[in-house]
Design a protein that fits this description.
Muramoyl-pentapeptide Carboxypeptidase, domain 2; disordered N terminus; 3 domains; alpha+beta
């Protein structure tokens, strides 16, 4: 009886052992086959490529074409000069306001400044010539709209009033330095302030170069010293006006200002 029980127990033990071996063998075989039924891990996403740098394209340069050159009545040799102006310069002052239908025909001269396209062309060439002589010229003011001129004028009037002056006195004092809106050459697009707004500019190599060469490019010193009684504007060594090389040279030779030149011609 005990023998039969032992025999029965041994069979059970043997069955369990064989079963375990089969299970272990299956697992080993499965591992050797690579576990086809187990989904493979998804590959890691590729590293995101850095965005290409944003190109900083240079500003588009506005091409300025030479002004048309008209033949002068006297067949002057200056007809070959691109800065020659057949027409008499327009005069803007207290007695001669800018016509309401005036069109400045603006072109860019860089740094946000604009000039009449003929003045812009001449300014570009004058800058290049000065640079070749080691002189650096740059614009600090050029074309102004009537709104901008009005704002500048009124701001200065307000400053004088805040300093204790009467409105009448403030207006008169302002008009000695800033043209009354509607009469400013800046509104014509033909005036440019160069390098500095200080009278000390007259002591610089840049001013000396302009005094000697600006007329060749059609620019004149618009408000000279000692002629304030004619121009009604205080001396401004920085303020230059484009009139054309033929007119500019005559004005310099005659030693007069534009106000006199336009009336006398």
């Amino acid at each position: 009886m005990r023998y039969r029980e032992r025999r029965k127990g041994g069979a059970v033990h043997l069955f369990i052992t064989v079963l375990c071996m089969l299970v272990i063998g299956g697992v080993v075989l499965y591992a050797m086959r690579g576990g086809d039924d187990i989904p493979e891990p998804e590959p890691a996403p590729p590293a995101e490529e850095p965005a290409p740098p944003v190109s900083s394209s240079p500003p588009v340069k506005i091409e300025i074409t030479p002004p048309p050159v008209d033949k002068p009545p006297d067949n002057n040799d200056d007809t070959d000069c691109p800065f020659y102006e057949a027409q008499m310069p327009i005069l803007a002052n207290r007695e001669n306001p800018i016509p309401g239908d005036y069109d400045p025909e603006l072109a860019s001269i860089g740094n946000g400044f604009l000039l009449n396209y003929k003045a812009a062309y001449a300014w570009e060439h004058m800058q290049e010539a000065a640079r070749a002589d080691g002189i650096s010229l740059w614009a600090i003011s050029a074309y102004r709209s009537n709104e901008s001129q009005t704002r500048n004028f009124n701001n200065r009037v307000a400053e004088h009033i805040a300093a204790g002056r009467t409105p009448e006195a403030a207006h008169a004092m302002t008009a000695e330095w800033i043209a009354i809106p509607g009469t400013s050459e800046h509104e014509l697009g033909l005036a440019i302030d160069i390098n500095s707004l200080s009278e000390a500019f007259e002591n610089t190599p840049e001013f000396a170069w302009l005094s000697e060469n600006s007329a060749d490019f059609g620019f004149i010193l618009r408000y000279p010293k000692g002629l304030e009684g004619i121009t009604s504007i205080n001396y401004e060594p920085w303020h230059y006006r484009y009139v054309g090389s033929n007119h500019a040279k005559r004005i310099v030779e005659m030693g007069i200002v534009l106000d006199e030149y336009v009336i006398s011609d």
